[in-house]
Amino acid sequence: MKSVTRYFSVVFLLLGLCAPAAAQDNAEQFIKDFGTKALEELTDQSISSDEREKRFRSLLQEGFDLRSISQFIIARHWRSASDEERKEFIQVFEDYLIQRFLPLFEKYQGETFHTNGSRTDAQNESLSWVRVNFDRQQGDTVNTEWRVRNQDGTFSILDVRAEGASMALTLRDEYGSVMNQRGGLSGLIEALKQKLDQGAFRPD
Predict the structure, then answer these.
(1) Residue % of the chain over a pLDDT of 70
(2) Among candidates 37, 44, 42, which has minimal Cα distance to 23?
(3) Do 86 and 75 form a contact (C-beta atoms < 8 A)?
């Protein structure tokens, strides 16, 4: 299973997910506040690895619409899946995100970010793309866009695009290939579990 492009390893350093987003004024402010809290909560070198994982998992569940993302990623297989299979995939997908991206917070080296405006999705007024520039110590900048949905004043993240590449689309293609080879959703779940047991998603 090929790895997600290195840009997503960078942008997930912003993955902090603030407290209930209903208090935020707009999508850009939500991302700004959430990114700030990410760095405060998850780069604290005084906390244990278990505590960092606990915080990461909690924040994932609060700020990302994991069900909608999962439904998009596994596409047509979602419709034929049972409720139990859907729950199992969401859990395994969450475990993948934790194994893949949590170690990056332990290696944080002072990178900074700033928001740079937002635009409403042309096809859906409840969706916005928030531009975020991420400056690394090496001197380069990663340009990203975060797809945010506003449901009655409550915000959640649906996708991240880094240098034009969509994380959701990247995973959809990758997982679709695995499902074609391994007999559908159950085969994908088993493949992900095997990789998780091997620690295969930990960053180099």
Answers:
(1) 86
(2) 37
(3) no
Residue in the block written with tokens 């959809």: 172
Instruction: Give the amino acid at 170.
Output: T
- The CATH code of domain 6-14+25-198 reads 3.10.450.710
Beta strand 112-120 with 165-166: parallel, antiparallel or unpaired? unpaired
CA atoms within 13 A of residue 10's CA, in its CB half-sphere: 23
Give the DSSP letter string of 20-51: -GGG-SSHHHHHHHHHHHHHHHHS-TTS-HHH
The residue-averaged pLDDT of 2-15 equals: 50
How much is the pTM? 0.84
* Single-letter residue type at 199: G
Is residue 60 within 8 A of residue 54, CB to CB? The reply is: no
pLDDT score, position 13: 54
Rounded Cα distance between 168 and 44, Å, is 29
**How does pLDDT run across 94-103, given as a tens digit for each residue?**
999 999 988 8
Give the pLDDT confidence score for residue 34 in this predicted structure: 82
Q: Is residue 148 classed as helix, strand or coil in its secondary structure? A: strand
The domain ranges of the chain are 6-14+25-198
